[in-house]
Amino acid sequence: VNLAVFASGTGSNLQRLLDLSRLDELGGGKVVLVVSDKPGCRALERAAAAGVATFAFYPKAYPDKPAYEREILDRLREHRIDWIVLAGYMRLVGEVLLQAYGGRIINLHPSLLPNFPGKDAIGQALAAGVSRTGVTVHFVDEGMDTGPAIAQEAVPVDPGDDADSLAVKIHAVEHRLLPEVVRALCRGEVWLDNGQVHWRPQG
Ligand code: GRF
């Protein structure tokens, strides 16, 4: 099962997937391509260090989103990608990729969706004064963080928490939850049917 991971920044979640891929602990999944809209970002360095192919592009070098997504699609096909994992990819996926990979794209988001979609979900949660937030892994549709949830886990917001301390707790959960979901997808234990998420009963 060939995986492409899309990332725009640090890539700590990407690193987890790269490590587990190398150890063959992703349910048969292999990270074979890393795509980034931020040439030079840390995530791309991590991919290179792991010996994984990369495709980096400047969105502004293209006339529009369909144009760069068609180029991404060429690379995905070249590498026979089965699943796309968005791990800190800071762009909305457009029609070209959704047409080709609908139901085979997942995203990681640092809140309990539908709460706090979009940018700076951690800051949004702190500003709202909630006592718990969390992590969601969901299928991607045309909306901003709106697709059906596959897995969610709560993280408490403690009285002394600031953006940094809360981010540390959220990342710890992400680093466990995202690989769990990717493993389940690769094993065919979870799938999307008619907009509904199904899990194969365990046992
Ligand atoms: C994660 O918190 C993820 O939920 C959000 O972007 C962050 C990426 O972190 N979409 P990293 O680049 O994996 O360290």
Automatic annotation (TrEMBL):
<comment type="pathway">
    <text>Purine metabolism; IMP biosynthesis via de novo pathway; N(2)-formyl-N(1)-(5-phospho-D-ribosyl)glycinamide from N(1)-(5-phospho-D-ribosyl)glycinamide (10-formyl THF route): step 1/1.</text>
</comment>
<dbReference type="GO" id="GO:0006189">
    <property type="term" value="P:'de novo' IMP biosynthetic process"/>
</dbReference>
<dbReference type="GO" id="GO:0005829">
    <property type="term" value="C:cytosol"/>
</dbReference>
<feature type="site" description="Raises pKa of active site His">
    <location>
        <position position="145"/>
    </location>
</feature>
<dbReference type="GO" id="GO:0004644">
    <property type="term" value="F:phosphoribosylglycinamide formyltransferase activity"/>
</dbReference>
<dbReference type="InterPro" id="IPR002376">
    <property type="entry name" value="Formyl_transf_N"/>
</dbReference>
<protein>
    <recommendedName>
        <fullName>Phosphoribosylglycinamide formyltransferase</fullName>
        <ecNumber>2.1.2.2</ecNumber>
    </recommendedName>
</protein>
<feature type="domain" description="Formyl transferase N-terminal">
    <location>
        <begin position="2"/>
        <end position="182"/>
    </location>
</feature>
<feature type="binding site">
    <location>
        <begin position="90"/>
        <end position="93"/>
    </location>
    <ligand>
        <name>(6R)-10-formyltetrahydrofolate</name>
    </ligand>
</feature>
<feature type="active site" description="Proton donor">
    <location>
        <position position="109"/>
    </location>
</feature>
<comment type="similarity">
    <text>Belongs to the GART family.</text>
</comment>
<dbReference type="InterPro" id="IPR036477">
    <property type="entry name" value="Formyl_transf_N_sf"/>
</dbReference>
<feature type="binding site">
    <location>
        <begin position="11"/>
        <end position="13"/>
    </location>
    <ligand>
        <name>N(1)-(5-phospho-beta-D-ribosyl)glycinamide</name>
    </ligand>
</feature>
<feature type="binding site">
    <location>
        <position position="107"/>
    </location>
    <ligand>
        <name>(6R)-10-formyltetrahydrofolate</name>
    </ligand>
</feature>
<keyword id="KW-0658">Purine biosynthesis</keyword>
<keyword id="KW-0808">Transferase</keyword>
<comment type="function">
    <text>Catalyzes the transfer of a formyl group from 10-formyltetrahydrofolate to 5-phospho-ribosyl-glycinamide (GAR), producing 5-phospho-ribosyl-N-formylglycinamide (FGAR) and tetrahydrofolate.</text>
</comment>
<feature type="binding site">
    <location>
        <position position="65"/>
    </location>
    <ligand>
        <name>(6R)-10-formyltetrahydrofolate</name>
    </ligand>
</feature>
<dbReference type="InterPro" id="IPR004607">
    <property type="entry name" value="GART"/>
</dbReference>
<dbReference type="InterPro" id="IPR001555">
    <property type="entry name" value="GART_AS"/>
</dbReference>
<dbReference type="Pfam" id="PF00551">
    <property type="entry name" value="Formyl_trans_N"/>
</dbReference>
